[in-house]
Amino acid sequence: MTGSAFRGWPPEALEFLRDLEANNDRDWFKANRSRHQEFLVEPALALAGDLSDFGPPHVFRPWNDTRFHMRPPIKEHVGMTIGYEGAGGYYVEISLDGLFFGAGLHQPAPDQLEGIRRAIDQPKLVKSLKQAIGHAEAGGLALNEPVLTRAPRGYPADHPELDLLRRKSLTVSKRHELRTWLHKPDCGRRVRAHLEAAAPLVAWLREHVGPTQSPRSRR
Questions:
Q1: How many Cβ atoms sit within 10 Å of the Cβ of residue 75?
Q2: Number of domains into which the chain is organized
Q3: CATH code of the domain covering residue 144
Q4: pTM score of the predicted model
Q5: 67 — phi, psi (to 5°)?
Q6: Which among 148, 192, 199 has a CA at the least distance from the CA of 48?
Q7: DSSP 202
Q8: What DSSP line would sit under 13-32, residue for residue?
């Protein structure tokens, strides 16, 4: 399927995920990895090929790191970034919980977070940020919730953009329930519509925040 146009994820993709949920161990996965590749990874890459104007893809490895956290050894989803260049991009994930789409800058480095806050503190830049967020929301995406209960250090408690300052990431997202359109070309059209809705936010982050200038440990 690699190199072909995206036709949707086949029903076998969900069958594999159900089987994985019931048999989540490394030996079972190794014996069934060809199903994972054919029914999940290859359709994801076909989707990325149709969306190549948004940037290159990266499909995450299937193995969970179980050294420090109690979790199944195999990820029960397939996640892929598109055009993620260290300063914002797009993310698509399929699991039994549905089809998830996200965009923006998730878990920014400390210097990036401070860059976001400095931009929010400037009326001209925060105006364009709000316009970008509004464009995403008009496309059916929701802005992530604030994390902090008060203004971050160095900003007044009554800052006019307090709601934005209380966020430690800047992302928009939507999760779709599993429906029959997931198995049809309409799935690709829906994902593209989300990318287009989020594109102004990603562009704002790349222009006004940019990649981190500090070394980061690999997750």
A1: 18
A2: 1
A3: 3.30.930
A4: 0.92
A5: -70, -35
A6: 192
A7: H
A8: HHHHHHHHHHS-SHHHHHHH
Q: Decide if 197 is inside a domain.
A: yes
* pLDDT one-digit tens code per residue, 124-170: 999 999 999 999 999 999 999 999 999 999 999 999 999 999 999 99
CA distance linking residue 166 with residue 155, whole number of Å: 10
Q: Which amino acid is at 74?
A: I
**By the 8 A CB rule, do 57 and 89 touch?**
no
- Domain span at residue 187 reads 11-208
Q: Taken in order 69, 72, 77, 82, is the CA torsion positive or negative?
A: positive
Give the phi and the psi of residue 77 in degrees, each rounded to 5.
Answer: -155, 170
Provide the 8-state DSSP code for 39.
I
Phi and psi for 165 in degrees, rounded to 5? -65, -25
- pLDDT band at residue 219 using 50, 70 and 90 as cut-offs: very low
Mean pLDDT of 36-50: 97
Within a domain: 173: yes
Crossing angle of the two packed helices 26-36 and 11-22, in degrees rounded to 10 = 180
In the predicted structure, residue 1 carries a pLDDT above the cut 50: no
| Any domain includes 57 | yes
Task: Confirm whether 61 is domain-assigned.
Answer: yes
Amino acid at 124: K
